[in-house]
Amino acid sequence: MNYFQLFDLPATFELDLTELGSRYLALQRKFHPDNYAAASNRDRLMSVQQTANINDAYHSLKQPLLRAEHLLALRGLKISHEQRSFTDPVFLMAQMELREQLEEISTSDDPEDAIMAVEQQLQQQRKLLLRQLAAALEANTAEQNQQAAELVRKLKFFFKLQHELELIEQQLQD
Amino acid sequence: MALLQIAEPGQSAAPHQHKLAAGIDLGTTNSLVAAVRSGQASTLHNAAGVDMIPSVVRYGPDKTEVGQQAVAAAAADASNTIFSIKRLMGKGYAETQPLAGVLPYQLVDQGGLAAVATREGVKNPVEVSAEILATLADTASQVLGGELNGVVITVPAYFDDAQRQATKDAAKLAGLNVLRLLNEPTAAALAYGLDSGQEGVIAVYDLGGGTFDISILRLKRGVFEVLATGGDSALGGDDFDQAIVGWLQQQSGQQQLSHTGRRQYLTAARKLKEQLTDNDTADYAFNADEQKLSGSLSRAEFEQLCGALVKKTIRSCRQVLRDADLTPDEVAKVVMVGGSTRVPLVRSQVGQFFATEPLTSIDPDKVVALGAAIQANVLVGNKAEHETLLLDVIPLSLGLETMGGLTEKVIPRNTVIPVARAQEFTTFKDGQTAMAIHVLQGERELVEDCRSLARFELRGIPPMPAGGAHIKVTFQVDADGLLSVSAEEKSTGVAAGIQVKPSYGLTDEQVAGMISGSMQHARQDMQRRLLREQQVEADRVLEAVTAALQHDGALLSEQELTEINTALATLADVRQQEDTAAIKAAIEHTNTLTDDFAARRMDKSIRQALQGHKVDEV
Q1: β-pairing, B178-183 with B150-155?
Q2: Are B85 and B128 in contact (CB under 8 A)?
Q3: ipTM for the complex?
Q4: What's the whole-model pTM score?
Q5: What φ, ψ does residue B473 adopt, rounded to 5°?
Q6: Which of B3, B7, B612 sits opposite A31 (nearest CB)?
């Protein structure tokens, strides 16, 4: 299913999120099961399926990483459930260093400072990769799409680290 | 495929008379029914002039009593008087053991599920709840002057799939048409939101008798968006009562209590709690198990007793804000729901955490029922236009058991519902034709820490080499928060047969058995009920397709139009007769014949929705 088509939006990585949001609500208003609570069984079932689609589409387009994955899937590159390891040694080293930094937070003198420091690094890296990703997807050549897929894989690592960082922060707060 | 009954803004699908609908707050301690009359939501009073009835059922020697009557006999007949049944909804026998010493009636194991032994035999929570629902529906029918077309029943947002399903089963057993299960905090927000035209982020703090919920919603131009929800389905005002009971026992030295004695302690504890809302100290004097007790409890002592409980709720508030990615100061208003929010310590702690005075202008005991009534009125179709859009979320993550007793999340908590997610599985042995799948709900990593929802057997997988078969299992959660599962082998398109065994619930057959087995529904009644259900469905199909033809008949060729009209005429004819199977067949025939038409309407309708939206923008 083409999520861009569902919202009648151009299939591009750069997306007006406000516009996406208001189109999402327009469709929800029309198809939400609350509109069909007294309708026939078939209509109710279809409303549930349609809104589930709309929700899934919105969820996938709203987040840059999922949006890129969807765009690549439309271009014939499926990466959502693949098992693949990295071969880029520079990237792997950087990852390991960040991971060490994460592990040292709880024992550092000022955990909050340590968290901020890692967060900043993660943010910078993410921004950089997202910019490269946008450019690669915009180019839309076979080679650039492969490059985009690789960037998505890398970004996944950064989002995962970000999530782990948030968990550490929570644990410290509690 | 698509939707047939699409009402355009400003026009109703068909002119119809006002339908009767009610909102029901099925609470742990008390229950209420409310309805919208002349545009105003209000609670409905029974013949005795009471709107809030105790959620208590007594299986007496010659009749079953519900509400105040049941409570009146409670002290004398504790083991047959069932209260707090909501705590047992959708629960396994083993997991309710901690309650066994607390509840003055006897819990028994009914095929793994918790049930109660009464003089009328074993009664499960679905049956007990159905008695309460039926009583409330009777009140509504009497006040509104007719049979109800549908009801909205509220459930704690934190209720899991088994608890929701049990609630829906109870409604079915009571013979009610459930328009929607609505989350209690969302209902409360509806009552407040429509009342005051509130905008911004609001928190709903709902401390009921047996459950605690905290939800964060964003209200914007008629859209009620639940951002995150959390809580504790086993924490509530009852625990405050129990804390006082424990304290009283310490004072008296009475450790072993009879069922009746326990009841007397509980009554005294509740009185003390209520008195301490407006007073700094409260006195008690009562007899229990041949001992006289008297003394006093200060508010400070009481606050010490329940301080830990309140703190636990604040911890949940912090977690849910984190989930919503918000800070306490971004919350504009806090709505208080549930009788236990009258406890001054609760109000002050909540006010302190959110740094704002909590809203209490609508009675915290009634606000949920009022919100449910508003939604019921909309859902039953009394309003041509829906000004409000409710976007709710799934409260707990859904996952699957993987190797080594770990869970893998398929749908994370706070995902907007309805939602459908697919997961692919493959076979690990040559020629494997079956596969076992275990569905879980919860946030923890280990299977044993999550709640088991169901076990599925996928059968009929075509034999292939290991890893050759790709089985796509789709999990769908509907607007009531209820899960359904379907599976398909991808390369062959063979739908794998699924046998669902709910871990803590009744199968469809068991519910049907209970309906036909109950005294009120003798065999003949059962058949009449099935006929009535098909007739109602036939009317819905007729109304929907007729309206669709009116709006979009132009989408059909002449031949298609003739075929559909013939099918409609047949359906209308069969509907007047009393052949349930024939009506069912005619409905199915009409559905099949209009599937393609529905798909074309769906596409058109999507285009229109987006078009209308663009016009709005300009």
Answers
A1: parallel
A2: yes
A3: 0.84
A4: 0.84
A5: -105, 125
A6: B3
